[in-house]
Amino acid sequence: MQSREPFTLTGLFGHPVGHSRSPHMHNAAFSAKGVPYLYMAFDIQPDQIGAAVAGIRALGMRGVNVTIPYKVDVIPYLDRITPEAELIGAVNTIVNENGELIGHNTDGNGYVRSLLEETNISLPDAHVLVLGAGGAARAVAVALAMRGAQSVMVANRTREKGDQLIESLSSICPARSLSTDEIPDLIGLVQLVINTTSLGMYPSTQEVPIDPGLLREGQVVSDLIYNPRETRLLREAKQRGAIVHSGLGMFIYQGAEAFSLWTGLEAPVEVMRKTVEELL
Ligand code: ATR
C-alpha cells in the first residue's frame, strides 16, 4: 500500500470469529487494489452487539460483515435495511454512509453470481429445490426468486420453517413447501438442487441430505458447504452425470459484493479466491 492517508477500518462482527477466512481474503483484496482499508475480526459478546454497532459510527468505520450468531440481532440497531435483506430477514454487511448505518445481505447475490459463473444454468428456465430452511436457505432462495427462477420448492426437516420461507417467497415467484417424503416424487422435475443444511460438512463427511440415487444426469447440484470442497453429495452427483457447484464461490462472492459496497470498486475476485484456497 503506497497511500499515506489514514486507514479506513472495516471488519467482522461474530462469535466466535477465530477461524474466519474473511480477514485474509479482504486484506488481500484491499492490498491488490491499493486501497488504504483494513479488515479486522471482532469477537463480540452477546450482550455487546448493540454497543458494537454503535461503535461503527463512533469510530468512523466504513462498515462490517456480520456473521453467526448476529445476522438477525443487528437489525434493530441499524438505520435501515435493503428490501432484499428485509425479505431474507438477515443482514451480513453493514455500510456506514456518513453516519447512516445501512444493512445489506450479500449472501444471496454472492450465491447467484458464483452459480452463474460456474454452471451453465439459465435461471428463467430453472425449477429449484432447496434442501433446508435456515438462514443460508433464506438468502439463497430469496435471491434466486428475485432473479427470476421459474419456481422454488423448499424441503426442510422441520416443515413449519419451510412454510415460513415459502410465505416470503410466494410474493415473488411460484413457491411451494414440501415434506421430505415428497422429495423422491418431485426431484426429477427440477433443474437445480441446493443443499443448505450442514449435512456432509467436516467432520461428518459421510452424511448426505438426500439419497444421491435420486439425482439425474444434467441436473445442477449445488452444495453451500465448502469444507470439504467436494462433499459426498457433489461427488456422487458428479458420478451420475450432474453438473456440480460447491460453496466456496458463494463465500468469495459475498465478500466481493461487500468489498464493492464499501469501496465502490470492482472486487479482485481471483486474488480473493486464491487467498482463501491457500488457507483451506
Ligand atoms: P444456516 O444459517 O447455516 O442456514 P441454520 O439457520 O441453523 O444454519 O439452518 C440449518 C438448516 O439445516 C435447517 O434447515 C435445519 O433443519 P431444521 O429446520 O429442521 O433444524 C437443517 N439441518 C441441520 N441438521 C440437520 C439434520 N441432521 N437433518 C436434516 N436437516 C438438518
What does this structure look like?
The protein is an alpha/beta fold. The chain has two domains: 8-105 and 253-279, Rossmann fold (3-Layer(aba) Sandwich), CATH 3.40.50; 108-246, Rossmann fold (3-Layer(aba) Sandwich), CATH 3.40.50.720. The chain is 37% helix and 20% strand. The protein has ten helices and twelve strands. It has helices at 22-33, 49-59, 83-88, 107-118, 135-146, 159-169, 183-186, 232-239, 248-263, 269-279, and strands at 8-14, 37-43, 63-66, 80-81, 93-97, 100-104, 127-131, 151-155, 175-178, 192-195, 220-223, 243-245. The strands form two sheets. Strands 2-1-3-5-6-4 form a six-stranded mixed β-sheet, with helices on both faces. Strands 9-8-7-10-11-12 form a six-stranded parallel β-sheet, with helices on both faces. α5 links the parallel β7 and β8. The radius of gyration is 19 Å and the shape is globular. The two termini are 26 Å apart. The mean pLDDT is 97. Bound molecules: 2'-monophosphoadenosine-5'-diphosphate. 2'-monophosphoadenosine-5'-diphosphate is lined by residues 132-137, 156-158, 161, 196-199.
